[in-house]
Specification:
The complex is a heterodimer of chains A (about 230) and B (about 260).
Chain A (H helix, E strand, L loop, with lengths): L1 H43 L4 H16 L2 H11 L4 H5 L3 H4 L2 H27 L2 H9 L4 H31 L11 H12 L2 H30 L1 H4 L3
Chain B lengths: L11 E12 L2 E12 L3 E5 L6 H8 L7 E6 L2 E2 L2 E4 L2 E4 L2 H8 L2 E4 L11 H11 L5 H14 L15 H13 L5 E5 L7 H16 L4 E4 L3 H7 L2 E6 L2 E6 L1 H6 L4 H10 L2
Parallel strand pairs in B: 3-10, 3-11, 8-9, 9-10
Antiparallel strand pairs in B: 1-2, 1-4, 4-5, 6-7, 11-12
Helix pairs in contact in B: 3-4, 3-5, 4-5, 5-6
The chains are: A mainly alpha (about 230), B alpha/beta (about 260).
């Protein structure tokens, strides 16, 4: 027990700093990823074969290769292209934080896109017809009926995706980011107490999972009222 | 024919000419024509598979007719060909005409994520461009008319089938439609809930709404409609004034249908 207290006293601030970086990665990736997931899902469902095939290729690539490989490809790969190094975005693109963020957003959007696509397909056909029959255009039907309905259908599955994303951010430590896992690795090699250090890190991840689950419970209570109230 | 409630007395609200619809090689509608004047109530009867629901869905283009013309208040819905298939020429026109043809569905099709009140205001606000206060006032009046005013903040899943269908009728009425299309509005209801919906529909007929009603309720057809149309195998097999026709059908097939339905 004493060892834990010593580690917390010595490295508590580092753990907080690492946790804060993890939170930033998760929140930004989850929000941007979800926003990107909607166009990905719509593109997957598009009547245009080119659009659907492009979206499907993107989705298969990011779901079909390991996240770690994707992080390396973005972090080490982008700099191989002259036009990337010459672009005005290069000072941003060489930052490990930005590389990690790009990877997480693209990765989570590929998975979430499938969740959203499933949600859109699960909206009862009759409700869509009712919208069209009263004169709503395709765009209005999406905005007022299909997307809000799909959103609430997706919510339970989407909480899973955010939890998986949160754990995936630990891979950012491989490209020098000192998020929670990165900090834990530093502390472990400094103290020679890897078990205690990683138990602490694991507990923090677990607490964050509980918080995410809680947030989704609140969201579901708000947006799925129309389902739960009837039970 | 002119009746006290104005049946058959108005100008043409809806004219359908030579409507055909094929799904692949299967021809469901083989050329159906119908004129509904203002205040007409047309009951469309037929056994299942006769094409009566498809006919109704072709009028507001939920199904795209293979051939034929639809005119609403004299305005022709323009059609064109796209990749060899018939298609509406102008979706803006279709959306505008659809807002004049409110539809009531067999499965109610209320938007589950909206409250009853929101279901009745959404079309008014987002299609007709009414402001929220005006739409709410109209919605409350329509909900009161169909007898579900007290359910305004409920979600559809909290209501019985009969209540949901009455909300769906209020939603249709709130659009101030030229013609109301009813697609088997009582077929998904428990027998004891059928009457509460039929009562609302009768009152709409009495106040002179123009209605096309696909139904199995022969009683409703006899008492509320001023015209009956019997479809069989994609064609109009028999049509006429309800009381005379239902008492003495011209077509043998219609006679069989009526004796089978025992009403």
């Amino acid at each position: 027990m004493q060892v834990f207290l010593d580690i917390v006293r010595e490295y508590g601030f580092d753990f907080l700093e690492g946790t804060w970086l993890t939170v930033q990665l998760v929140v930004i990736s989850a929000i941007l990823g979800f926003l990107l997931a909607v166009p990905v899902a719509l593109a997957r469902l598009s009547d245009s074969r080119i659009v659907a095939a492009t979206a499907s290729g993107y989705s298969l690539f990011f779901r079909g290769t390991p996240l770690l490989v994707q992080i390396f490809l973005v972090y080490f790969g982008l700099g191989q292209f002259g036009f990337v190094r010459d672009s005005i975005l290069w000072p941003l693109l060489r930052e490990p934080f930005v590389c990690a963020l790009i990877t997480f957003v693209l990765n989570t959007a590929a998975y979430s896109g499938e969740i959203v696509r499933g949600g859109i397909l699960a909206v009862p056909r009759g409700e869509v017809e009712a919208a069209r029959a009263c004169g709503m255009s395709t765009a209005k039907t999406y905005r007022l009926v299909i997307l809000p309905r799909a959103f609430s259908i997706c919510l339970p599955a989407y909480s899973n995706e955010v939890i998986i994303l949160m754990k995936g951010t630990s891979l950012a430590s491989t490209i020098t980011l000192l998020e929670l896992t990165g900090m834990a690795r530093l502390a472990a090699s400094a103290t020679y107490q890897p078990i205690q250090v990683f138990v602490i890190a694991g507990l923090i991840y677990y607490l964050m999972t509980l918080i995410i689950a809680r947030i989704f419970r609140v969201l579901e209570a708000r947006y799925n009222r129309y389902i739960t109230d009837a039970r | 024919m002119v009746t006290p409630n104005g049946h058959g007395n108005g100008r043409a609200a809806l004219e359908v000419t030579g409507l055909r619809k094929a799904f692949g090689s299967h021809e469901v509608l083989k050329g159906i024509s119908l004129t509904a004047r203002d205040h007409d109530v047309v009951a469309i009867l037929g056994s299942s598979g006769s094409g009566k629901s498809t006919f109704l869905r072709c009028i507001n283009l939920l199904e795209i007719p293979s051939a034929g013309e639809v005119r609403v208040k004299g305005e022709l819905i323009e059609m064109t060909q796209r990749r060899g298939e018939p298609a509406p020429a102008n979706m803006k026109q279709v959306d505008r005409i659809r807002s004049k043809l409110s539809m009531v569905f067999q499965q109610f099709n209320l938007w589950q994520h909206m409250t009853v009140l929101e279901n009745v205001t959404a079309g008014q606000i987002h299609v007709l461009g009414r402001d929220k206060a005006e739409a709410t006032e109209k919605a409350e009046a329509m909900l009161a008319k169909v007898g579900v005013a007290d359910k305004r903040s409920h979600y559809p899943s909290q209501l019985s089938g009969g209540q949901q269908q009455r909300v769906a009728i209020a939603r249709a009425l709130a659009m101030d439609p030229e013609v109301m299309l009813f697609d088997e509005p009582t077929s998904a209801l428990d027998p004891e809930l059928v009457n509460e919906v039929l009562r609302v529909m009768r009152s709409l007929a009495e106040e002179g709404r123009t209605m096309l009603v696909v139904t199995h309720e022969i009683g409703f057809a006899r008492e509320a409609a001023n015209k009956v149309m019997f479809l069989h195998q994609g064609l109009v097999e028999d049509e006429g004034e309800p009381r005379a026709l239902l008492a003495n059908p011209n077509s043998e097939r219609f006679r069989q249908f009526l004796s089978g339905s025992l009403k």
